[in-house]
Amino acid sequence: QVHTVESGGGLVQAGGSLRLSCAASGRAVSTYAMGWFRQAPGKEREFVAAISGSGGSTNYADSLKGRFTISRLNAKNTVYLQMNSLKPEDTAVYYCAAARYGSSWSNSRNGKDFDSWGQGTQVTVSS
Fold this sequence. Notes:
The chain is mostly beta strands. Helix content is 0%, strand content 47%. The strands form two sheets. Strands 2, 4, 5, 6, 9, 10 and 11 form a seven-stranded mixed β-sheet that branches. The protein has a four-stranded antiparallel β-sheet with strand order 1-3-8-7, with no helix packed on it.
């Protein structure tokens, strides 16, 4: 069982940057693919990015490519989401999760293929 805790959210002006962290714990967690998702008020949860267990493969939502970067430091069992050039429409609660069944990689952008969701961290971008 993997346990995840997100941090790093906050209030930032449009054009600013934030780096989110996801601390993961559990057996062999460093081998799991991990993903970031977000959910804005009144909207469905949407895929943001995913990274393989090794960190060698990544997958991004098409609309976020070039602004967001996912990375991981397995020595610290931590996954990061660097967010640059933030826009008000990036305002949401951001969640990290582990690939279901401990998969080391998944091309899925469906939240149903991930589990061990954290409590989320709020990101608010003011205009």
